[in-house]
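Run: sequence + alpha-D-galactopyranose -> complex structure.
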Amino acid sequence: MRSRHNRNLGLAGAVAPLCLLLASSAFVAAPAWADGALKIAEPKPAVAQTPPMGWNSWNHFNCDINEAKIRGAADAMAASGMKAAGYQYVIIDDCWQKNRDADGNIVADAERFPSGIKALADYIHSKGLKFGIYSDAGQQTCGGHPGSRGHEYQDAKTYAKWGVDYLKYDWCYTGTDNAQADYTIMADALRSSGRDIVFSMCEWGTARPWEWASDVGHMWRTTGDISDAWVKNSKSKAWERGVLDILDLQVGLESFAGPGHWNDPDMLEVGNGGMTATEYRAHFSLWAMLAAPLIAGNDLSAMTPETKDILTNPDVIAIDQDALGAEGHRAVKDGDFETWVRPLKNGDRAVILLNRSESAHKMSVDWSTLNMAPGEKAEVRDLWSKAVTKGVKAAYSADVPSHGVVMIRVTPSA
Ligand code: GLA
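>> structure
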């Protein structure tokens, strides 16, 4: 069974003994992170200027992965319209690793991946897609496979040789390690690998990565794992949270996100069966509002048309990928009724009216919430129904379904 050991104890636990060590030896060089300033040799690759979009094996397949399933996901991404909608990265999560060879090189499980990881990467690249892989800062991954501790530079070189474009780096079995120090080592290793690799930090938010990670990685998890549930329920594991539980933990983090450095509220559950279509539409809309990486987690080769329509909604994806890169924030909270607002590059605003209650509710957003004068006319486009209303003044009202959203794009002076 998968265990979850040794969560990080935070900066204080690691810094105090280090200070003692430094005081006792004038000749010990301070590590890169000791004075709070990161000193990574190479600049951060300028990838992920908008939130990365892709697919990851974990939410649907867990450890039950193999070469055929990952190829199948790549095939489906290319053929289903997902690639055309902007999805790019095909990411293998945990359980692809077997052991290390006599030289310490990481070895993939040959039963699951008989052609090897390089051949799989080549196949994914041949579809015009990018390839992502998973490791862990500890000695083992969360699933008990070899982690990268002590092999960071060696693994980064291997990934570059294989053609890896994206690394998700987990935080199991890290004991009392300092997260900033460990993630900085792998960031440095990736940058010296000679390949531009998106660095996706999966530290679960324990050491508040939003405060220090914008120079280290391209995205960082802000919470524990997502559950395929509107709110945590009896099927959720101890460390999992529902969509609304995760949403609440994003409030106040919006100022830390921007091009090349994103808050990551975890991968999508759209299409995995635990929520209604209305809830999945809300989940997808809210993640776009949050400028979240859009990493699908369903079985792409067996998507219903409804799931595909949610995951490929071009208007909602355009909000997520807006070039300004400003994460949306919760502007109004009135019990179960919330208004979320995101400023967009061209001066438009994205707005979500969220109804967390058990019945439908008429909600409205005032122009004052959008920093617009009451008399200012705007065009309002409903991003799910596609209805367009011109010349709207002062406020916009809509019926919002239970456990659902209305998501609109407001274009002022139109
Ligand atoms: C952790 C991560 C998950 C997934 C699993 C794999 O729980 O947070 O996203 O990668 O490990 O074991």
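>> summary
Residues 58, 93-94, 141-143, 170, 202, 225 surround alpha-D-galactopyranose (CB under 6 Å). The CA atoms of residues 362 and 399 lie 4 Å apart.
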